[in-house]
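Internal ticket - ligand job 145, CA2:
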Amino acid sequence: MQRILVLNGPNLNLLGQRQPEVYGSATLADVKTLCEQTAKNLGVQLKFSQSNHEGELVDALQAAQSDFDGVVLNAGAFTHTSIAIMDAIAAIDTPVLELHISNIHKREDFRRHSYVSSVAIGMICGLGVNGYSLAVRAMFDHLEG
Ligand code: CA2
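stdout (structure tokens):
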């Protein structure tokens, strides 16, 4: 059974509480349920987690080397700033798929650069929270070859 980690970065715990015009009205708990349903349909083991702390995200990525076959990562604003997260992804063999709820290329200029993209197997963005389900499926397909 494939093991997939869905890892969320800073402020995504606020999903559904503010900026619904950008991120929609689903909460992070709703997104977790969506991912769990997708995983169940695919026969995948899934862990869903969130942290506001860069070092905790680095720790989770390092641990994914042994604990997971693939990672779906929405690194939040650290996407645009964190060399530490980029280095952690580069340091592990576990494939990482980058995910964003919003279309980061349609927003402020500073969101157009992603440190994660240079080390991710691919990226899904702009499809709302449904992107999480698509990303879990895409990671499953990637792992199954
Ligand atoms: O579109 C995405 O998924 C982002 O990764 C979300 C990040 C943002 O910094 C990235 O540029 C794009 C922000 C997550 C903050 O989420 C909130 C949700 C509701 C209310 C406030 C923040």
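Auto-summary: The first strand starts at residue 3 and ends at 8. The chain is about 40% helix and 20% strand.
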